[in-house]
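Thanks for the sequence, V.! I ran Photosynthetic complex assembly protein right away. Repeating your input here for the record:
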Amino acid sequence: MTTNPNPQKPFTPKFKREDANDMIPIGLVRAMFALAVISLALVSYASFTGREKAAVPAEAPVVQSWTISLVGNDAQAVTVLDAEGNLLADMAHGGFITVIQNGLMTMRRRHGIDPNLPLQIVQFENGRLAAIDPLTDYRVELTQFGSENQAAFERLLNIK
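Predicted structure:
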């Protein structure tokens, strides 16, 4: 006859501790789900009723516009061409310009459009600078990402 060398009861996972206290209070769990449901309801209401978007930049006349192509070479490298196909910059580490190129490439891939087609960089009278894709609804307000990121495009296009 063999005896069990380990007479302890086998481990079974539990949802509550031995002292019957919840690890996370049930009220907090309910509040988290309520917050998610309320957020979804508010967004759905705004979407279905056609409510105007908030925090949209003020309209301003266009001062200047440039047509450029952003060609991504890998995760960091980007080549920038002007409207005629002349090389403006070939950067191994494009930084913020690569971020814009990656976003543009993703949006165009969704729509089945060639990612190397040109986009518009627009300078508005109120000083804003924006990257606008005429083929999709992709629009990036470059001014909103800080002065250093805006300066990257200003240097690229010789804006001052």
